[in-house]
Amino acid sequence: MLKCQRNKFSITKEYVYLNCAYMSPLLQSVHDAGLAGLIQKSFPQEVYPDDFFTPANALRQEFATLINAAHKDRIAIIPSASYGLANAANNITLESHQNIIVLGEQFPSNIYIWQKLAAKNNANIITVHAPNATENRAKIWNERLLSTINANTKVIAIAVVHWADGTLFDLKAIRKRADEVGALLIIDGTQSVGALPFDVQEIRPDALVCTGYKWLMGPYSIGVAYYGEYFDDGEPIEENWKNRLESQNFSQLVNYQPKYKPMAQRYNVGEFGNFIQVPMLTEAIRQLNEWGVEQINEYCHILIQKPLRVFKNMGFWIESPEYCSPHLFGVRLPKHINIEKLQQQFQEDRIKVSIRGNSVRIAPHVYNDRNDFERLVAAFEKVSK
Ligand SMILES: Cc1ncc(COP(=O)(O)O)c(C=O)c1O
Prior knowledge:
By secondary structure, the chain is an alpha/beta fold. Helix content is 35%, strand content 14%.
């Protein structure tokens, strides 16, 4: 069983940081990897052609291991979730009777591109909203999603967990239904991959995109995407020379090469071999692989059991455990709690969580401990009186 890993991170006990869903802190080792990259660029005589490719391959391999992808070349390096999704959408055409399914209040990176694609093809977007209920809310939402998928569905563009409250979607059942109707399954794993086990061989997403700065614990502006076979012959949104065959051979670059590298390699962003960010994200995912995602999830699970009981006793509403992962969950507050007072209390007590409407989003990781949750509970108690 994992122990608290705070000493490996930049954060101290001064703050209760329960907001990895916003942005992770950096591991000391990730910070050091970034500094080494910065120093390397200061001495360009030390930058060799291999440095544009070999570290990027190491990153692809770490992420492939994390999600159990059979080949690292199925992984592309992207600057943002929006970019990874744009590459997917760029290779999908719909007929006007077809539809794209998304979830209510989904993160905009996984909405705008589908709105654009639907408009371009004169096709429909169907939004599956959460029920206006507290009892069986996630169960009903999942059922609604499954029953909305039909023979006209071309794309199901969803997330593993809802970014705002952590509602978990049953990807196995959704994949099965997608197979029945021949729909593509495009997943935004930004709020789950790294903290909740995800196996691409089991779920078989057609594409999976993840930003690096949250649960992958990397820097901002770099992420990773997995593209399945559907996208193997696709058209990337930009023509980055490093994605062409033999691009490592710098002396032959103007013998222009019409062929791309295999699998997902055509979807890497230009200048993907970023000397600072690539080693940082590689080291972060290496550490996640060393800890094990199941162990990270188990750590969070154990940590939240007592606070969950306290929250329920205080009258807070929380999704049932089978539809909620311990790394990201929302607590809905009873009406008598004044949100502004709560926000003030959090500020005074140096507690960092996200507040949305009358819900508080709590997102722990292995740097949190029982004391963090005791301080969070104490803050809630002060404003509940
Ligand atoms: C679910 C989800 N997807 C994506 C992102 C980030 O998107 P992008 O990388 O396009 O800025 C966020 C940021 O909060 C998010 O919560």
